[in-house]
What we know:
- There is one protein chain.
- The chain has 12 helices and 10 strands.
- The chain is of the alpha/beta class.
- It has 2 domains: about 5-170, Glucose-6-phosphate isomerase like protein, domain 1 (Rossmann fold, 3-Layer(aba) Sandwich); about 185-319, Rossmann fold (3-Layer(aba) Sandwich).
- The chain has a 5-stranded parallel β-sheet with strand order 2-1-3-4-5, with helices on both faces.
- α2 packs parallel to α5 (about 145-160).
- The protein is globular.
- It starts with a helix and ends with a helix.
- The mean pLDDT is about 95.
Amino acid sequence: MNPELFLADLEAKPAALATLAAHLSGAPFADLPGGITRVVFLGMGSSRYAAGVAAGRLRATGIDAYAEYGSAATSFPPSPGTLVVPISATGGSRETLDALARYRGKSSFVAAVTNNQDSKVTEGADAVLPMLAGEERGGVSCRTFQHTLALLLALENHLTGSHRSVAPLVWQAAEATADLLDRREEWLPLALDLLDGPDGVYTIAPAERLSSAEQSALMFREGPRRAADACESGDWSHVDVYLTKTLDYRALLFPGSAYDAQAMDWVGQRGSTVLSVGAEVEGAAAAIRYAHDDVPDVALLTETLVAELVAAHWWSLQS
């Protein structure tokens, strides 16, 4: 793992997204069968974060969908009509491979999502869905996380029969990502100052974009090795609110929940610090805006870049 190469990986996001958008303009799911009634995602870490959001979206359309830890001892048995989607950027996640072994060669259809098409996760798979994120030389899943989300949005459209192409959305995400990168000197110093406290960083997002909070917290832990934890916006008032009474609480908020104001009321009473990403929020110390941030799916694909760039800076100071 290398902080300078991690930053270079982040700076390469717009170009990588352009490659993915071109791929999604074609027929990336042509090998998938019809008649799918259940989807089981398998993954760990960032892969599971993305899968959790995708599963929730599919359930909202009436499709049984679940995001399983690869390390779970049990899950749904193989069955016709079940699509199993193991997700592994490297293609070698041990836990995901162990879970996949329950389905290989059985009645379920296996479609592997990976950035390494010659890896173990593709062995015996009925289809392979490439992330096309390029090599992440910094050793941190950043582009692969973003590309996984985009692929799973496209998979959702395929399974639900939607005629809406995800390619234009990915182009918008590329523009939004480039905007944040190009203007980082305007917003990054303030973000570094507001989030730099003695008690870690806390990330908050609505259930529909919970992966943004989870991935952001992971970036603070994985690179600069800072304490960080994620919470769902509504659940925050039931589980994380207590920390504001005793800690120098610093939070990165991804707004859009009906319960943002409830959390911000407590933040105001306790004098905690919140930095909002993508929208102005009453009571927040500041807000970071970017192109197309009023489009929820663009936010889903883009907003973690704020935490990634903060983490890259803190990490570089330690090297």
